[in-house]
């Protein structure tokens, strides 16, 4: 196997070479990529010649796919592919993908389609490093907390800045309301690492008021977004980024004026999050069965580590 892994920063990110994503991967390559993802949290691949079909085939090496999104439409003819298009909105807020459902994706892939000549970087943060950065009393406190995640909340954008197209997109995004309680500290099912599982869809700490919750969530989030914990990926044409959605957050920087920017996203179905006491997340509102199966050990391909 000629797989080569080159670190990008000390705490997160690596470039992968020596693998052709346009063909089926060998068992050794899948194992090597999974191990690298466990260590580096986000991996960057050259993706010359890769199309939507190939991106889906690559993602399937790591488990069953979700559909494109619980409420937002897919690329025509490709129900597992979500167009991340600047014309449909800009995800310039820190988040982990689709945490408002019971079992968010375990991994996300993004492939560059149209890249602006400047700006448009994606930030990816290591939530395990953020947890380790917490002072011990704050870690013990965070271990006990649960947060309610929802897709239906105030996006903090003034109404006068919302045009008809953006309003329609927001209405589609919230056409089904989802609310799920997740542990604030999630235990990774493969590595056993603890990571802060918060981000933009976490709107309230269970048992606390909105005001109290906001102060605690902001404090914890400040550790996630420390510069030392962040990979700032400057996109090139024909690249694919794979990141571990169970223990990262990401942010698409809106710094490219009105230029077009388009990526395609394919996500791998995930397991139900588990907290430090072994308790699983629970759904409060909304059924996402149309969007994602639940990833279980029985779903794990034979060549993938069985510790999921």
From TrEMBL:
Keywords, ordered alphabetically: Dioxygenase, Iron, Metal-binding, Oxidoreductase
Molecular function terms, GO-annotated: metal ion binding; taurine dioxygenase activity
Top-level taxon: Bacteria
Cell cycle in keyword set: no
Cofactors: Fe(2+)
Enzyme Commission no: 1.14.11.17
InterPro entries: AtsK-like, TauD-like_sf, TauD/TfdA-like
TauD/TfdA-like domain sequence ranges: 5-267
Xref: Pfam families: TauD
Gene Ontology cellular-component terms listed: cytoplasm
Signal peptide segment: none
Family named by the database record: Belongs to the TfdA dioxygenase family.
Protein name: Taurine dioxygenase
């Amino acid at each position: 196997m000629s797989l080569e892994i080159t670190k990008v920063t000390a705490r997160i990110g690596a470039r992968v070479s020596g693998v052709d994503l346009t063909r089926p991967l060998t068992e050794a390559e899948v194992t090597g990529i999974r191990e690298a993802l466990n260590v580096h949290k986000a991996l960057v691949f050259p993706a010359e010649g890769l199309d939507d079909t190939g991106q889906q085939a690559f993602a399937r090496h790591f488990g069953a796919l979700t559909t494109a999104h619980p409420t937002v439409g897919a690329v025509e003819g490709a129900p597992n592919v979500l167009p991340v298009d600047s014309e449909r909105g800009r995800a310039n807020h820190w988040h982990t993908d689709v945490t408002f459902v019971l079992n968010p994706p375990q991994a996300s892939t993004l492939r560059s389609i149209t890249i602006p000549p400047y700006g448009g970087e994606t930030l990816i943060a290591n939530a395990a490093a953020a947890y380790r950065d917490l002072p011990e009393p704050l870690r013990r406190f965070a271990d006990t907390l649960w947060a309610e995640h929802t897709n239906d909340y105030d996006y903090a954008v003034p109404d006068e800045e919302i045009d008809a197209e953006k309003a329609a997109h927001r209405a589609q995004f919230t056409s089904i309301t989802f609310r799920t309680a997740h542990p604030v500290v999630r235990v990774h099912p493969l590595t056993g690492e603890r990571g802060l599982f918060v981000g933009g869809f976490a709107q309230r700490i269970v048992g606390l008021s909105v005001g109290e919750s906001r102060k605690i969530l902001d404090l914890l989030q400040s550790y996630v977004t420390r510069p030392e914990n962040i990979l700032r990926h400057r996109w090139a044409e024909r690249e694919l980024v794979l990141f571990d959605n169970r223990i990262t957050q990401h942010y698409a920087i809106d710094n490219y004026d009105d230029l077009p920017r388009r990526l395609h996203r394919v996500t791998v179905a995930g397991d139900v999050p588990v907290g430090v006491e072994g308790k699983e997340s629970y759904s409060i509102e909304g059924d996402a069965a149309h969007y994602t199966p639940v990833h279980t050990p029985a779903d794990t391909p034979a060549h993938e580590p069985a510790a999921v």
